Amino acid sequence: MAGSLEGQLALITGGSRGIGQEIARVLGRQGALVVATATTPAGAERIDADLAAHGIRGTGVALDVTDDAAMSAVLAQIQASHGAPTILVNNAGITRDQLLLRMKDDDWDDVMATNLRAVYRLSKLCVRDMLKARFGRIINITSVVGVMGNAGQTNYAAAKAGVAGFTRAMAREVAARQVTVNCVAPGFISTDMTEGLNDTHRDALMQQIPAGRLGVVADVAAAVAYLAGPDAGYVTGQILHVNGGMWMG
Amino acid sequence: MDSVAERVKKVVVEQLGVNEDEVTNEASFVDDLGADSLDTVELVMALEEEFDCEIPDEEAEKIATVQQAIDYVSAHMPTKDA
A17 among the known binding-site residues? Predict the structure, then answer.
C-alpha cells in the first residue's frame, strides 16, 4: 500500500497524540503530504517532531477547532502554502463524561462544539475545493458509543451519532463529484482519552469485546487509510466499525 | 476581452459540461441544461470566481437562466477603471 496516497494532501485534526497521531503517520507513510492540527503551538511542534522522526513529509499547525475565525485562517494558510486538502480526517474530539443528572450545560455544549460543530464547519470549508477537483475523501472519526450508547456519555454519544447523520447526508450531496464521506467508529481503543476511564468501567467494557483485547491506534488508522485510498471510491456514507466485535451493526 | 455574456457562457459550458450551442440566453440551467441543485451552487461559485464578486444566497436563488446570470453579473461587476 506504500505510495497509494502519493500526491494527496491530508488534513487531520487532533493529530498530536492517540488515534490522530497514528492516522497522520499512516497516511504519511502511504505518500500523502500531512498537515495535522493540535490545540496548542506546543502540540503542533510535537507533530512536527513526530513526523520528522518518522521520515514523513508534513507539518503540525495549532488550531482550536471551536474557533471559527482561526479555522478559516488556518485553512487559508494551508491552501496558500500546500494547496487544498484532498483528504480530511475529522478526528479532534473531547469527552466531558458525567451522568445526565449531573451534567453541566457547558459539558454538553463543549462536546457538541468540538465533536459535532467543528466537523460541520471544517467539512464545509474543505469540500468546495474537493468538488471542484472532482475528488475528495472526508473521514469522520465517530465512536461505537454513538450507536450503542454508554452511561455517562449522553453528550459524547449524541455528538457522535450526530456526526454519523451528517456524514450520510453530506455523502448524498457530493457523491456525484467523486467525493466520499464516511465514518470510522472505533470501539475501545487504548489511548490517553480512554486512560481516563476507571478500572470498573474498563473491566465491564472488556467483557463486551469478543476479540478479547483493547484496540490499538493502528487498528483505527488502517481503516482510515483504506477509506482515504484509491480503492474505496465507491464506498460512501458508511460507518466502518473497528471494535473487535463489540458492536456488529 | 470577451464580453460578459461570452464569459458567462464559457463558465456554464465548463461547469455543466454542455455544448456551447445549447447555452442560449433563454436556457434554464435546470430544465434545459440538466443541472441539479449542487450543479447550480457550483455554477454560482464558478461565476463568483470568474467575475471576482460575491453573489449572496438570496440573489443566487434567482439566477435560473443564462440571461439572468448575465444580467446579474453585468449589474454587479466591480468596475475595474473606477
Answer: yes
Q: What is the pLDDT of residue B82?
A: 44
Q: How far apart, in whole angstroms, are the C-alpha atoms of residue A112 and residue A159?
A: 6
Q: How close is the nearest chain A Cα to the Cα of B48, in Å? A: 13
User: Which CATH number applies to B2-18+25-74?
Assistant: 1.10.1200.10
CA distances for A99 relative to A103, A149, A166, A193, angstroms: 6, 12, 26, 18
Alpha helices in chain A (DSSP H): 18-29, 41-53, 68-82, 105-112, 118-133, 145-148, 154-174, 192-195, 199-206, 217-228
* A206 pLDDT more than 90: no
- Rounded-to-integer distance, Cα A140 and Cα A146, Å: 12
Q: In this predicted structure, what is the pLDDT of residue A249?
A: 78
CA dihedral A92→A98→A103→A108, nearest 10 degrees, is: 10
Which grid cell is A177?
Answer: 463529484
Over its C-alpha atoms, chain A yields an Rg (Å, rounded) of 17
Q: Does A176 count as an annotated binding residue?
A: no
CATH of domain A9-236: 3.40.50.720
Three-state secondary structure along chain B? CCCHHHHHHHHHHHHHCCCHHHCCCCCECCCCCCCCHHHHHHHHHHHHHHHCCCCCHHHHCCCCEHHHHHHHHHHHCCCCCC
At CB < 8 Å, which residues of chain B contact A? 36, 38, 42, 45
CA of A34, closest CA in chain B: separation in Å?
A: 27
Domain boundaries, chain A: 9-236
More confident residue, A199 or A80: A80
Per the structure block, which three cell numbers stand in for A29? 507513510
**Which cell numbers in the block locate residue A196?**
481516563
pLDDT attached to residue A203: 83
- Local confidence band at B78 (pLDDT 50, 70, 90 cut-offs): low
Q: Which three cell numbers stand for residue A57?
A: 513529509
